[in-house]
Amino acid sequence: DQAPDPARSITFPPDFLWGTATASYQIEGAVREDGRTPSIWDVYAHTPGRVLGGDTGDVADDHYHRWAEDLGILGDLGVGAYRFSVAWPRIQPTGSGPANAKGIDFYSRLVDGLLEKGIQPVATLYHWDLPQELEEAGGWPARETAYRFAEYAGIVADALGDRVRTWTTLNEPWCSAFLGYGSGVHAPGRTDHADALRAAHHLNLAHGLAVRQLRDRLPAGSQVSVTLNLHQIRPMTRSPQDLDAARRIDGTANRVFTGPMLAGIYPEDVRADTAHLTDWSFVREGDTDIIQQPLDFLGVNYYSPTLVAHDEGGGAHNSDGHGVSVHSPWPAGEGVAFQQAEGRKTAMGWGIDPTGLYDLLQRVAREHPGLPIVITENGAAFDDEVAGDGRVDDPERIDYLHGHLSEVHRAIASGVDVRGYFLWSLLDNFEWGYGYSKRFGAVYVDYETQARIPKSSARWYAQVARTGALPTRDALSR
Ligand code: GBH
């Protein structure tokens, strides 16, 4: 690598953490091995009509068997950190009770392998693969699920806490609650807004209870966090109606999580906007004290902004790009229309707007001063293809990453405390309702042969991670 030319590059703080991310069900496969039982995503994906093309995570990237090769790829990338998730049904096959040693062993080997390469493991406890047995007992709308999660968190902390210093409780509880139980485009595919709100509360409670377990068990100096897919909501105009539509969507997109987790309250307007669905009696005395736990940083996932307008007569919109559903994920979304931005889009149809990330970081810093931020996911799907020479050239992804990292740098320069950035994703993988049709990886996966082919974005990102500097878009090392 050449030293970055200061005139042609912008430099990140020396201790800025560069990483990539994956999630268990999206990459592991081996769904029936070593005692693993079905998760809600196994059942959902095996239900005809749910996932595009009938794809399932049965094999995925076969990472459960190819983890050593994947560690080698991570080593070549030169990243300082790797964010992975632990599959609950490998650890507790029935969703409760003692640990399954073989499940623990898999993550233990992975963690040891990362540490040997000098890569910091960042463990997420829940990236959507709830043990099916717990769904049958009521799933996230049932309060008991939160207590089961805390027990599971304790088991994983006991097993890996001596080596994993950085922990995340939940990944994107918004998706678990409102795509899983509201629009039904994610597992378990239920469509009831009252259940979705109950699920949101029990996910919040699960987070708080799990943080307590982690704090009790982890050595001093461990970092505990949660990852939220905060929505950067943009009203189409400054009209009072559009602003009110934005406020209502912001309530169940963002503040129903940040309120209790970071401020110990459920915002009054969120309760009022959803009063036609529930009396919120599922929030018991003392719950918000459990949910509000000091965090070492907030994980933020960002892909694209959310454009909203007031729409008389509007209502059931599928706006999340996660498949076709007649059900809306938004409990307070009556009379709100979701707009598509002009201009370039990714293969998901999501508009490309790096300034949305800057604005989002500014907001978090303003509303939650003193809370460090890590960008735990950012990236894009494009229609990548293997060329005749065997290479995968993805200039659009480099452009996307360059644009977003420039905005992260601008936020840091303005005083926002951003500590790290994780590219989603290390590998092409099972993209939930879209199956294998969407490729987010820095590394291409041939699903016939399981061959891994680093894309040109992987080489570009490796240079960024190694040097801590952002070259111009075209200064691509070969
Ligand atoms: C993440 O989900 C996941 O953590 C990861 O597993 C996944 O593979 C990756 O991103 C790519 O999808 O405001 O209604 O338009 C991101 C899910 C996508 C949910 C954008 C919110 C916009 C909702 N998010 N979506 S809306």
Automatic annotation (TrEMBL):
Amino acids binding substrate: Q26, H127, N171, Y303, W424, E431, W432
Record GO terms (molecular function): beta-glucosidase activity
GO cellular component: cytosol
Catalytic function, reaction form: Hydrolysis of terminal, non-reducing beta-D-glucosyl residues with release of beta-D-glucose
Family (UniProt): Belongs to the glycosyl hydrolase 1 family.
InterPro entries per UniProt: GH, GH_1_N_CS, Glyco_hydro_1, Glyco_hydro_1_AS, Glyco_hydro_1_beta-glucosidase
Major enzyme class: hydrolase
Hydrolase among keywords: yes
Active site per the UniProt annotation: E172, E377
Example of a GO biological process term: cellulose catabolic process
Record keywords: Carbohydrate metabolism, Cellulose degradation, Glycosidase, Hydrolase, Polysaccharide degradation
Signal peptide annotation: none
PANTHER family per UniProt: GLYCOSYL HYDROLASE (PTHR10353), LP05116P (PTHR10353:SF36)
Protein species of origin: Streptomyces montanisoli
Protein name: Beta-glucosidase
Enzyme Commission no: 3.2.1.21
Pfam families: Glyco_hydro_1
Record bears the keyword Hydrolase: yes
